[in-house]
């Protein structure tokens, strides 16, 4: 008889599949990364987790039946959504529906995350070298160990339905219509629908979170903060809501200060305490570490900001966002631009990721994929491509703060300008765009 209490069910593609145009051997990733990492995870009551995957571990002849048993009863489940495999999402959805906790999502660096699950943390990992593989294994061990220790609710389905059973079809229909409005680019319609859902379902933090994110994307910082405040009030351990609240509070403080040409002076900086709380709840959230770096950077605490970006680089396996910010801060502090071998490899990988994202229809993570790729071209000495990508990014800007953020960030490179002869031309494009 199977002891499900020590099983970690692995939901991932089989064999070789394409991920962002690259052939990936998922069997090798399971054997070399997930299985050994899971076997390192200790259980609170003693013993260790045992990895299980349908094609490798089930022998009764009825794979589907055993798969559903593991989805239902396994102590933990991990899902690798790289490549957006239909079977993976089916099994992940079944797991989220049946278990309110004990599930973690992973994805390869640069792989797409659909909007429907963007409010759920998907931990990014890299692979291909001994160093990257070991870093990925350490990330998996950390995520699973912390999840087993705290046993926090991680199912968006159970979170969304926690207080919805009595609300009937009206809430369900509005949620469906809101998601469709988001997919169709009608954010105002989606906002109205989420407000109606909240009126029907006052105690569900997920609705508040989604409305807050939409308001954040519109630059409506006061209302965004109100929604994130409500979300953490309803679920104090909601790490993502603490993170978004901190980001929005910092943006609002600087927006208000810009009206009087001042800089917010406070310690902690606006939003800092909320981001530290988010990190306390989820130390593997590279977005929280990177956002804390941004808050500290705007407060002029450059050494601390660089440390936060370095931590974000570490937990994200050199995601382009913290990578580029850490490099800019280093250039600002040391007044020179100097790349290590590890930096060069990370920059090359970041360039491949961002270039693929700019070519998607529509571009993924726009306009940031264009601005990041522009910066990478600047470092490579490709001045005209740098300027062209800034122009393309500006065409996709939806709120002024996005262009302001890019300009503020690139200005950190000015102490190293002698080695970046086209830096000023890009800043001039941003200045022209931001003229009153």
UniProtKB/TrEMBL annotation:
<keyword id="KW-0802">TPR repeat</keyword>
<dbReference type="InterPro" id="IPR019734">
    <property type="entry name" value="TPR_rpt"/>
</dbReference>
<feature type="repeat" description="TPR">
    <location>
        <begin position="286"/>
        <end position="319"/>
    </location>
</feature>
<dbReference type="InterPro" id="IPR011990">
    <property type="entry name" value="TPR-like_helical_dom_sf"/>
</dbReference>
<protein>
    <submittedName>
        <fullName>Uncharacterized protein</fullName>
    </submittedName>
</protein>
<dbReference type="Pfam" id="PF13432">
    <property type="entry name" value="TPR_16"/>
</dbReference>
